[in-house]
Every structure is written in C-alpha cells, then in structure tokens.
Known about the structure:
The complex is a heterodimer.
Chain A: H1 2-13, H2 21-30, E1 40-42, H3 43-46, H4 48-51, H5 54-73, H6 83-92, H7 97-124, H8 133-155, H9 160-174, H10 180-188, H11 195-226, H12 234-242, E2 277-279, H13 280-305, H14 327-339, E3 341-343, E4 346-348, H15 351-372, H16 389-412
Antiparallel strand pairs in A: 1-2, 3-4
Chain B: H1 2-34, H2 38-51, H3 55-60, E1 68-70, E2 75-77, H4 85-88, H5 114-117, H6 120-123, H7 132-136, H8 149-154, H9 159-171, H10 181-192, E3 200-201, E4 204-205, H11 234-243, H12 245-248, H13 261-273, H14 309-317, H15 339-342, H16 345-353, H17 355-361, H18 384-395
Antiparallel strand pairs in B: 1-2, 3-4
Helix pairs in contact in B: 9-13, 10-13, 11-13, 14-18, 16-17, 16-18
Amino acid sequence: xxxxxxxxxxxLTWTWAPRSERESGEAxxxxxxxxxxxxxxxxxxxxxxxxxxLGVAASSLFLILTVxxxxxxxxxxxxxxEAYGDMKDLQFAVSFGWLLRNQHRWAAHGMVLVVYLHMARxxxxxxxRGQRFGNWIVGVVLLLATLLLSFTGYLLxxxxxxxxAVTVGTNIAREGPVIGETIRYLLLGGTxxxxxxxxxxxxxxxxxxxxxxxxxxxxxxxxxxxxxGLAAIETLRLGRRAxxxxxxxxxxxxxxxxxxxxxxxxxxxxxIEEQDEGFSSPELTRRVALVFLLVFNITLLLSLLSNAPLxxxxxxxxxxxxxxxxxxxxxxxxxxxxxxxxxGSYRISGGLIGGIIVPGILLAALAVWPLFDRSPRSCxxxxxxxxxxxxxxxxxxxxxxxxLLIAVGLGVRGPYWRLYWPGQPxxxxxxxx
Amino acid sequence: MEGxxxxxxxxxxxxxxxxxxxxxxxxxxxxxxxxxxxxPLEKRFKQILEQHGRIEDSRRFSIGIRQIxxxxxxxxDRCITCHLGYDWGAVxxxxxxEPFTPHSQLPYLEKHPFPRFGCTVCHGGxxxxxxxxxxxxxxxxxxxxxISKELATGYGLTVGQMxxxxxNFCHRHDLSTPGMDEINLAKxxxxxxxxxxxxTIEGKGGLVGPELTxxxxxxxxxxxxxxxxxxxxxxxxxYQHLMDPGKVSLGTTMPTFGFKPEEARALTLLLxxxxxxxxxxxxxxxxxxxxxxxxxxxxxxxxxxxxxxxxRKIFQTRGCNECHTIGAGKLIGPDLIGVGGRHxxxxxxxxxxxxxxxxxxxxxxxxxxxQFGGIVMPNQNLTPAEISTVIAYLQKL
Lengths: 433, 397
C-alpha cells in the first residue's frame, strides 16, 4: 500500500523535480501542465532582469482571481436587494470571507497594474516587431479585457462606491460619437444603472470576460512558442548568423548534392547554442513557482493589512461627494473634468475629448506602433536600445502623465471636485444624524 | 550544467524565504479568522454559566455567531452574538454587566416580539456586523447609526425619546400612539400650528413651503448649512430651522412659531421619521387613532383688477391666497375684500413690512391674532416697491 502510494506520488511529481537531463527533457512532454514550455529555453529568456517575469506575475494574479472568484460566486447573488448584504456576510459571517474578498480585490487592482507593466516591458525592450506584432495586438486586447474585468467587477458589491464609479465610467462612454449612447444602453441593459446593469456586469465579469481572457492567454502563450520564444534571443540569433560556425571540417562529404558547400551546417530551430540554454524543468518551473509564491504572498499580505472598501448600500438618489471612477479610469475622469469649459451658463462637456478622443488615439497608437518602429533589428529584445530612445521617452512620458493625472484624481480631488492638498482637511459633509 | 547549478543556487534561498513567508501569512490569516472580538466574549459567558453552577446550560451553550434573521423585513441582526442576555436571559443567574444584560421588559415588547422585529428596527446600527465599532456607530460607511446615549444626549434627548423617531417609521399614520410622547406632541403641534397650510404631507396641504412627506430621505447636501451651528446634521438643521427659520434659511416666509426647545426637538424627530419605507403587509400596524383626512383645498384665484396686475401677481405667487380669500369669508387670515377701506395706506405698509413688529409696537393689536388661532401672519420679506404694488391691488378690491 505504502509502496503504491509512493509510486503514485513519484508519478505525479517527478516532472517537477527531474533527476537527470533525460528526465528534464521528458518532463516537459509528459506533463499536461508543462508541455506548453519548450524542453530547453535560452538562459537569457529565463533571466530575471530581462522579462522581470511580469507576464508570469499577471497570470499568477489571474489564477488567484479565478480561484477566489469561483469561491466568491458561492456567496454572491447578482440582485440589487441581495448583493450588498452578501458583501456584509462575507465581511462578517462567512469563514475566511474577508480573505476571499480582500484577496480578490487586491489581486484585481494588482493585475491591472502588472499587465500594464508587462506591456511597458515589451515596449521598452522593443519586443513587439515582425512576427511578434500579432502577439502584441493580442496583448493589447488582453489589457483591455483586464480593464473591463476590473470595471465590471467594480459594480458587483452594489455599494455607493460601485454604483457611482460605474455611473462616472458609463457616462464617459455616453460621450462617444453616434454609438456612445447605444453602447451605454447595451452595457447597462437600459438607461439607468439598476438590476439589468448588475446582471449584465455579472455575466460579463464571471463568464464572458474571464473565458475570453483564458482563451486569449492560451493563444498568447502559444504565439510566444510559435514566434520562437522571447525576443531576448534575437540578439543571440543575430550574433550566430553574423558569425557562422567556424568548426574546421573534419570530414567532407556532399549530401547527395542537397546542401551547398563542403560541410553540413545545421541551424537548430531556435538558432541557439547549447551552452546558452537550460532545461525548462526545473529551471523555469522553479522560477514560475517563485513568482507565483511572491505574488500570492503579496496579495495575502495586503489582504491582512487592508480591507477591501465597502461603502453604504447603493442609493441612486444620493450622490457621494466626490464621486470618483476606479483609479485606472481616474486619469480619464480628470481629463474630462479639466477639458470641460464653462462660459457663463454655456458648458462644453469634456467627455468627448477626455473620454473618447484622447483614450481612442492612445489606444490606436498603441496598437499600430510596432508597424512604424523603424529601428534596426539589433534593438529587438534589448532594454532601452539607444536607437529607440525617442520612442521609449514618448512612452514613458505618456505613462508619467497618466500616473500624475491618476495621482491628482486619487489624492488631491475632494468634494465638488476641488483640490485639497494632502493633510488639508476636507470640509465636513452634512449627514442625517 | 554550470548554468543550471548556478540558477538553482541563486533561486533556492528565495524559494525557501517565500515558502516560509507563505506559511507565516497563512498562519496570520488563521489567527485573524479565529481572533474575533466576539469569541472571547462568548467563552467568558460560558465560564460565567459554569461558575454559577449552570453546568447543563454551559454544555448546551455553543460558541458561534448568532443572529435574528427575518427575510421578510430584511433583518439580519447579529447583535445577539455578544448581547447574550437576549437568548439566555431566562437562565442567567444574576444581573450581569453589558453586553450580557437582558433586554429591559418594556410594555410594547409583547406586540413587538424580537424574532419578528430584530434589534436594529428600533435601535438602528449595523446588524450585519460582528465587531463592536461597526455594529454600534456603524463605522465610517453606514448611514444608520445606533441610537446611543452619546448620540441622543448630544441632541438633548434620551435614548428612549430618540428611538420614538424609529417607532414612527411604521406608526406614521397614527395620530397618537401609546408610549410615543415625543412624536404624539409633534403630531399635535402639526395640527395646532396648521403646518399643512403651507406644507404638503402625504398629498395634502399647501404648496408654499417644501413638501415634507419623505423629508428624512432628502439628501443633506441639498440643504444650506452655512447658518447652522454645531455639527452639520439634518437634526441640527431641522431643529435650528424650527426654532428660528429666518436665521437658517435667509428670506424664508416661514414664521417663527416660538417653539419651546422640547417642542422643536419633538418636531425634528417627527420630520426625521418621515422616510419612504416599505414593509410586508403583516407589518403595517393597524392605526391606533387615525389622523383625520384633511380636505384638499385649491386656493381660489385672486380676482383680476384692471391696472393692478403687478400687485395681483405678487398676491398669487407669494401664496397670500393660501390664507386670505377675497369675498369668500375668513380662512386662516381675514377676508381681504374692502381691506383698503378698513386700513390706511400707512397702516397697510407697516403691516406688510413686518406684521410681528407692528403687533409689538401697538398694544391694541396684541389680541388681534387670537381670532385667527394665534397665528401671526409671517413676514413675506417684500421689498418697499413690492409692498406698494400689493397695496395698490388691495385698495381696488
């Protein structure tokens, strides 16, 4: 019995801790979870300081979100008269309910941040060119899906924060030309945020968007393999092509005239020398586990330190002052607010500029940027290549502006959207008792 | 193999650190889950039962969250997790200190059994919560605080008086309800001072002042608090406005009724009880003494007199016709037909400028309001020019 159990254990675990190079190679092929990795990977691709493992961190967060989200679904009813009570139950009565909710919340915020950082890494390393352009587009769609996932999840607690953040968000969508109103109607299932909107956001949040992300994530990973791995290897490839093998021919033979020259030069499919490679199992799997542990620990620590916000029950008749969009849309709200011009009683809404035109242009630019990147191929897979200096500065500058706008919206905006410096007290808002 | 070993030797310590961190954090999560505020209290209660020789009861007593759950009323009150006197009051050996004190035996509890009503229906607070601060004050994000001693005394009331406000959530249709002295007084005042001449309550009344049916549901941010002293709460706004309407809302036509502080407090409680709440039918109390229906009265149009259209307009828009008829007899104030012949222009001018001041200045007018139920005509804050046009109109009647 004990013998059988040990054998079973060994069967389940040997691929994660291979004892020989032969086992390392087989480990990848024999394991469902590992076979999307190549058996051997360039050490440069696995290095910490090339990719920073941001993609692994993002998918770790998504795994945490999927598991906590599935558990949260056991306690949540997407009904306007029950959802808020379910939040209170999770907070006060459900065993580890606070942990589920906190971890889901902080992991969701973290995922928006990490997915953006992952994209920034790909941009700064110029790793989006040539055949990798397709995967860049998939990445942009994944970023959008992440934002939408976070935004749809924002409404579900059905508290004042949720209701009014989504009100701000969907009112920006309304400013879209021609179809803005229709999109908002479609999203909300009506003209007001009510039961229909809650149900639609719920279905989007727990089914349509996560399934989309899982499928696109699978495709994203498959494309990485098909594109030959991370762009970090491109410099290796270039170096190898520039300096072909100079091993002296020990034996000359013509392969039935199939190859040119006197020797056979076989370039492996990855064009990488054996000494530059390592086995995926256990070198890569160990690092993936490390990153997952790190990410899990951080979300757990945040969940212990800070509770997910929950305000009063949603009340369409009572607007909190100030009403703010979720932080990742706050830069848009800030743009809308600062491009709204009032001349006397005549008011030009900034919704079109700040809510549609600016983000629309930025998104379009993001999608087509690789097509206009004319830097030499030697910049591919290199951090901050000097030839791409101006591109990187542009990207960084836009990021800094977005971060500053978010910081203003988050930290400095008070009641009536006026500026209150940190430490400066907000005026006391009137209340009932 | 060189690279593989170096990668392993570099990563392994981190793997150890993060794994240890993982176990520490998971342990902390368990600690937080089991380190609740209520569990030690329940354990102490179990010990108390043992100390008093109630071994059987102590064995029967289980540690866990308790709640009064009434889905019909939307009540989830976990107060009884700590306030164990609720469930165990009968077996309690002696009078214990809070939170174990049993609920005091109040006469109306017979008609309001706890399992049907829960705790927060009367006391307010956050029934969902299992932590003291969140349950009592409601924490930062709960707009229905528990009626605590501090809250009530801050407004010059006792807890019992202030809770009457919540009784009236359901009993709003009673004219008077036993045990609700504050609210009963306020309802009498509403009738006596004829508030519904100007204010609409439940579809009846005048349109001069704001509608009051669901006054407690109005957003506090819609009110001007710049002339309110103390904390910016609706209670303070209503109370100070009732004591001196002109001080809180400048230029209001609402007269100063000279309420005593306790009267103004009672009226404030009544105003704050007027919420839009829906109950299952079996919770709607049968009225103990029904308020009589007030006849809806549409004020008559003031007659058009050629050459005095401006004055007529003011007469209509300022709501003069709510209290005065022209030729249809005494209403709240006197019939104004032929008023120009009864009083001089100067008399009318100083009366319209400030009725209360004129009564104070002329002793022979002191008894004047008695024939109109003691109501002094409110100052309408008309400008001298407006007064002249109104007088020009009145003289032609």
